[in-house]
Amino acid sequence: MTHDPADLTVADYLDGAREMAAAGRPFLAHLLAEEAARRVDDPATARSIRPQYTDPTTDRG
């Protein structure tokens, strides 16, 4: 992994999101996925990323 965040790719952020989700860290997974979605050029791809890692702090009830 790189030490310069500017060198990270969308795939790097999504890999991190998957790792954080697997480690039981849903908020960090959400933040990493949001950054991945922000960096994607295609809006449809960005929209497909966000629902996979929803914000666990949002009250939906």
TrEMBL record:
What are the boundaries of the region Disordered? 38-61
Return the protein name: Uncharacterized protein
